[in-house]
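Duplicate of #3305? Posting structure anyway:
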């Protein structure tokens, strides 16, 4: 018994005149086991006794890397509170402690406007601890998101250790200084005056983060090698005693150098078992601290929710030791649910007793060995899922931490997605039988695929179905979208049938969704936009119940190209200006200004303010008619989907529907759209988002690097002259300030983003530590106290090493996108015409050559096991980084861009006409952006040819899409591309089953053959004239761009386009003209300003420029050509036309073509299939009405409604063949009222609005 305890006992005896003293000796009371301290350690303690004092020295600690600074929220006012009333004992104790702190120089008198009260809490030994109540100050302090270590990560590092020592720093926080600008904020008020701390006091909100940062900084060389640190607890571990003495010495040397002091009475040395953070660790493994076992054994029955929360918090801390924890704790966690009365029943008492029993008899868990394989035993029931991680470390399979989880609502789907679990239908004590792949053939990857085969185990399949349908982010979609989501990652026989049965049996879907879809009528497709967020439609969903935020409506915005939607909560009384602000904040800031905006005639959209705003933005307004306000079918359909999603998500509480909108928006945008066969997210961003159902990794194709010839002598001399910019590594200094620095501009109202660090494997931790040390040595990062913090993850490189990546997705999401243009690859290739010699430069870690803007450095913070850091240079993962880098490259190389240099991000290609002119590495051919470029020509990269030659047969739509994407990238090299590939895109159409037939295989083989034998294309010479050959058939149009550069006509590019929709109904004359228009639009960058000769096998087109009587379509086309181009159209028979094969099927190529007389009088008219036998006279010419040619209407045949509310009429033209019947808008019938009136009478109506 200690003297201090005996003294208190004597005092109590004197006060009560009665006393009983029992002295018991407990062996290994705290579970820690130590032998006699070895002599070498005693000598070490004697050597370093200067850092083991009985008390802190009477001086302030030195200035360290980290000082504690209190950063308050903008607009905060000084906090002060009146002193609390204290008892005489507390007053006496406070006086003594203040005198002690003054004597040590740790506090000083204060005149600060701040002031916190003092209170006391009892210590375990009965004495009092003085505490400062900084809660008011903490409330307005910006939180430091520095990562405190995960306890399970720390325990994992102790594997293999047999000797332990534990150091406790003496009043650790007081060994850190306060920043000078924060000292006055620590002021506390007492009976004896106000004082302020010069060192970091206990009780400040960010104090643990500051202390952990300093510990990580000074002990970084030893972390995870022989030391783990948790605040002021330092644990040194070693494999043997000899090694342990050396490790202790290294730690003591660091503490001496940094002037940190250790409390010897609380430190323990050379232990075989050590108590650490509530666990007892030894060479055999880790188990629950015996003191905690005793605490739980005597824990009283919880009497209210607060006491139950304390018990469950304690139990959950040790859940890794408890098999079936989720199942045992389920009755208790149910008592914590919202709106559940606290009614203690027998089942709750039984759950408490079972948890107590499980914790007091918890097994010893071994620590994982990263060099050995693992075994998982898993099982699932209707209520919970559980798993055991095991490993054979030479003594058979022993347990590592256990995992258990309830299957309730959304939480049931967060852990077991795409995990390669070895599932057993019955519990197994040993895992040896399932640890080898060959013994479980039913669980394996499908050959040649990245899907996981799901065995015939109903609970597991049901779990997957619930994950992809029932949870909130899955959206309760129908069977098609649910099947598409599961099929991305999993496969089992009859999966579609299982999905169909599961969805139709969903109670939520049956109650919350109703089928109101009408039969499909005549649908007229709109023109497809060229890129995402070019054409946008918007509408309101109103009549929703008001939420606590005042929302009772949703502004629904949808992109016509990608089908991506945004669901923005608002209120029906919102003014037009507020709606405009929402549109700018959520749409324009993320996607740019649309060219066209489609809406109904809501007063907000017809207001003067809205029209003027759109006019200033350059956005065209397209509105539905007043009689058909619901003609924007796509938005109306999306409104129905949103309403269904809301009903499914808010079935329990409809008053908070606006809180579900972000998740429902994610669910919609991540669901495959029937019209495109892709998710809106993928079409907009070109990638799939990371979801709780983490997808399996895609196969990586390794490519060889380009081989270069030996540089010529002059090049070698040049390299020697500029060897200062060709180092083996980056210099140990920051790059200079440049014209462009990377600034992160966030959306208005954004808050700092931070995420907890991901758990990493030992290999990843070791690699991360090396890379952080490298970046610190280079001065590219620095320690951070930023409120931002992104986690770190690793991806494998092709050579097997790891690439450290920062997960900035949360930050990128709220960053305003920079629309700086990245160069078009075809534009870059065009600049290489005439070049004979090439050199390619790759900048060393190019992005790190650009500084971060000072006001954005803190936003790059990332969180690791070893602390928080922030980049001083531009990291790779930021959303606008490519734009910033391209802008800087364009700026510094602008004088020689397109003269001898092209730049694509950090790839610089120098090209020259001869070696004398050239100044670099002198290649005759260069590989650049998937092409092989040489003098005057460009062709497909041979590596890509080899890749397509070995491309396997596609087995599903997902495998077909990459092949078509690859082929389409090189379509300019492939004559008849549209015709050859035609059967394959059909497989991607809506409701088209993936049935692979011989025609599809033939198409793939033809494309492979065309790509592997692709012609060499010459590069265009802008000083020479061009030739275009065009042709059209019933199915497609084609063109070839040609130029004579002295060796006869040679191709520059091929163009082939499949006809769609109304284009298929054009007469052959208009199809041929369409081919010309498409060719001129595609190649306008070449043809504008040069003379172009167009060859066509359609004789009538040569009169196109002189024909007096033209249809509206022909007038528009001629106007386009005459405005921008200098061209001539020349007739060339089909058999002499190179483009003829691009469009004309072989079985009609030999049809004889006759020239028609009076072609200038023919409205698009096809000659009958006879050789002028019984030919009728030509139809009458048009009549000029106000200088506009108009044709006489004989009568109206039918009518139809277009999507924008326009009524169109099918017209029979007087004197023309019935094949020339055509649809015209009702507004064009102003001079033909009699035929229109006759048609309306026949329909029984008086106006077209009644049709």
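Output from current build:
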């Amino acid at each position: 018994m200690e003297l201090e305890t005996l003294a208190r006992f004597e005092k109590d005896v004197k006060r009560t005149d009665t006393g009983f003293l029992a002295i018991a000796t407990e062996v290994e009371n705290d579970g820690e086991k130590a032998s006699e301290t070895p002599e070498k350690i005693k000598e070490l303690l004697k050597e370093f006794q200067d850092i083991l004092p009985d008390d802190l020295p009477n001086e302030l600690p030195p200035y360290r890397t980290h000082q504690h600074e209190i950063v308050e929220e903008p607009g905060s006012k000084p906090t002060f509170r009146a002193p609390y009333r204290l008892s005489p004992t507390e007053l006496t104790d406070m006086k003594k402690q203040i005198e002690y702190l003054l004597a040590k120089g740790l506090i000083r008198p204060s005149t600060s406007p701040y002031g916190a009260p003092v209170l006391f809490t009892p210590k375990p030994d009965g004495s009092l601890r003085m505490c400062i109540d900084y809660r008011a100050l903490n409330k307005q302090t910006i939180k430091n998101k520095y990562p405190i270590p995960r306890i399970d990560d720390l325990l994992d590092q102790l594997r293999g250790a047999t000797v332990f020592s534990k150091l406790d720093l003496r009043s650790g926080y007081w060994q850190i200084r306060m920043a000078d600008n924060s000292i006055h904020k620590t002021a506390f008020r007492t009976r004896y005056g106000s004082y302020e701390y010069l060192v970091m006091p206990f009780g400040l909100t960010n104090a643990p983060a500051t202390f952990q940062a300093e510990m990580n900084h000074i002990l970084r060389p030893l972390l995870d090698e022989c030391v783990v640190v948790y605040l002021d607890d330092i644990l040194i571990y070693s494999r043997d005693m000899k090694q342990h003495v050396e490790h202790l010495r290294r730690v003591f040397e660091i503490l001496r150098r940094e002037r940190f002091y250790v409390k010897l009475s609380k430190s323990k040395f050379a232990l075989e078992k050590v108590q650490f953070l509530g666990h007892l660790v030894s060479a055999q493994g880790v188990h629950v601290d015996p003191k905690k076992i005793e605490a739980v054994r005597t824990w009283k029955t919880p009497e209210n929710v607060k006491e139950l929360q304390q018990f469950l918090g304690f139990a959950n801390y040790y859940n890794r030791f408890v098999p079936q924890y989720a199942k045992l704790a389920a009755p208790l966690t149910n008592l914590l649910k919202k709106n559940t009365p606290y009614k203690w029943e027998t089942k709750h008492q039984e759950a408490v007793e079972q948890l107590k029993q499980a914790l007091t008899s918890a097994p010893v868990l071994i620590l994982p060995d990263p060099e050995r394989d693992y075994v998982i035993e898993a099982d699932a029931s209707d209520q919970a899922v559980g798993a055991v991680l095991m490993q054979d470390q030479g003594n058979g399979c022993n347990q590592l931490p256990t995992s258990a989880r309830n299957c309730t609502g959304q939480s049931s789907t967060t852990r077991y997605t795409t995990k390669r679990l070895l599932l057993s239908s019955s519990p197994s004590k040993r895992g040896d039988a399932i640890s080898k792949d060959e013994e479980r053939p039913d669980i394996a990857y499908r050959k040649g695929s990245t899907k996981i085969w799901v065995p015939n185990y109903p609970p597991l399949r049901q779990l997957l179905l619930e994950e992809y349908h029932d949870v909130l982010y899955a959206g309760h979609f129908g069977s098609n979208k649910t099947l598409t989501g599961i099929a991305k990652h999993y496969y089992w026989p009859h999966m579609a049938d299982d999905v169909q049965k599961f969805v139709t049996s969903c109670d939520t879907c049956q109650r919350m969704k109703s089928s109101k879809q009408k039969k499909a009528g005549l649908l007229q497709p709109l023109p497809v936009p060229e890129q995402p967020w070019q054409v946008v439609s918007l509408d309101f969903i109103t009549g929703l119940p008001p939420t606590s935020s005042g929302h009772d409506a949703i502004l629904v915005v949808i992109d016509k190209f990608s089908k991506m939607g945004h669901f923005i909560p608002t209120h029906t009384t919102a003014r037009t200006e507020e709606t405009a602000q929402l549109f700018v904040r959520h749409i324009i800031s993320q996607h740019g200004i649309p060219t066209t905006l489609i809406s109904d005639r809501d007063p907000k959209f017809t207001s003067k303010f809205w029209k003027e705003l759109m006019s200033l933005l350059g956005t065209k307004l397209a509105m539905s008619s007043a009689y058909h306000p619901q003609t924007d079918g796509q938005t109306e359909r999306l409104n129905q989907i949103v309403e269904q999603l809301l009903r499914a998500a808010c079935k329990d509480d409809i008053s908070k529907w606006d809180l579900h909108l972000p998740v429902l928006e994610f669910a919609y945008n991540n669901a495959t759209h029937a019209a495109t066969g892709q998710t809106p997210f993928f079409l907009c961003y070109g990638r799939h988002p990371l979801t709780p159902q983490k997808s399996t990794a895609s196969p990586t194709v390794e490519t060889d690097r380009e081989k270069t010839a030996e540089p010529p002598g002059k090049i070698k001399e040049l390299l020697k002259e500029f060897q200062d910019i060709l180092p083996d590594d980056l210099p140990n200094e920051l790059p200079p300030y440049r014209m462009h620095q990377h600034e992160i501009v966030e959306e208005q109202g954004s808050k700092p983003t931070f995420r907890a660090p991901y758990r990493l494997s030992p290999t990843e931790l070791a690699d991360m530590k090396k890379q952080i040390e490298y970046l610190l040595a280079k001065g590219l990062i620095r320690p951070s106290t930023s409120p931002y913090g992104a986690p770190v993850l690793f991806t494998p490189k092709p050579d097997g090493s790891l690439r450290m990546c920062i997960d900035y997705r949360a930050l990128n999401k709220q960053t305003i996108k920079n629309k700086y243009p990245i160069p078009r690859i075809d534009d870059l290739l065009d600049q290489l015409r005439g070049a004979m010699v090439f050199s390619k430069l790759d900048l060393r870690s190019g992005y790190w050559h650009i500084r971060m803007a000072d006001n954005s450095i803190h936003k790059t913070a990332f969180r690791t096991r070893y602390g928080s850091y922030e980049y001083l240079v531009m990291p790779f993962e930021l959303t606008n980084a490519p734009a910033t880098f391209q802008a800087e490259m364009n700026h510094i190389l602008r004088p020689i861009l397109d003269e001898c240099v092209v730049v694509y991000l950090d790839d610089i290609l120098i090209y020259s006409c001869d070696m004398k002119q050239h100044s670099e590495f002198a290649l005759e051919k260069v590989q650049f952006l998937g092409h092989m470029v040489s003098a005057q020509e460009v062709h497909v990269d041979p590596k890509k040819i080899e890749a397509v030659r070995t491309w396997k047969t596609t087995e599903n739509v997902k495998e077909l899409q990459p092949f078509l994407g690859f082929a389409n990238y090189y379509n300019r090299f492939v004559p008849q591309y549209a015709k050859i590939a035609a059967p394959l895109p059909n497989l991607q159409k809506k409701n088209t089953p993936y049935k692979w037939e011989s025609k599809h295989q033939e198409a793939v083989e033809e494309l492979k053959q065309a790509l592997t034998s692709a012609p060499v294309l010459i590069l265009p010479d802008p000083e020479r004239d061009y030739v275009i050959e065009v042709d059209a058939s019933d199915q497609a149009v084609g063109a070839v761009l040609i130029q004579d550069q002295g060796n006869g006509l040679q191709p520059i590019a091929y163009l082939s386009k499949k006809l769609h929709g109304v284009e298929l109904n054009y007469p052959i004359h208009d199809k041929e003209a369409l081919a010309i228009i498409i060719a001129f639009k595609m190649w306008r960058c070449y043809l504008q300003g040069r003379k172009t000769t167009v060859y066509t096998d359609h004789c009538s087109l040569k009169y196109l420029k002189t024909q007096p009587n033209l249809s509206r379509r022909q007038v528009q086309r001629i106007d386009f050509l005459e405005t921008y181009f200098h061209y001539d159209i020349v007739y060339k028979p089909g058999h002499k036309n190179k483009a003829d094969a691009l469009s004309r099927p072989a079985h009609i190529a030999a049809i004889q073509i006759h020239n028609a007389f009076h072609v200038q009088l023919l409205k698009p008219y096809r000659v009958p299939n006879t050789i002028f036998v019984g030919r009728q006279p030509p139809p009458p010419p048009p009549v000029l009405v106000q200088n506009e040619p108009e044709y006489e209407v004989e009568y109206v045949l039918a009518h139809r409604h277009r999507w924008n509310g326009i009524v169109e009429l099918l017209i029979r033209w007087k004197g023309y063949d019935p094949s020339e019947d055509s649809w015209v808008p009702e507004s064009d019938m102003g001079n033909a009222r009699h035929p229109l009136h006759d048609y309306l009478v026949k329909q029984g109506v008086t106006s077209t609005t009644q049709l």
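Confirmed duplicate; merging threads. The chain has a mean pLDDT of 75. The radius of gyration is 39 Å.
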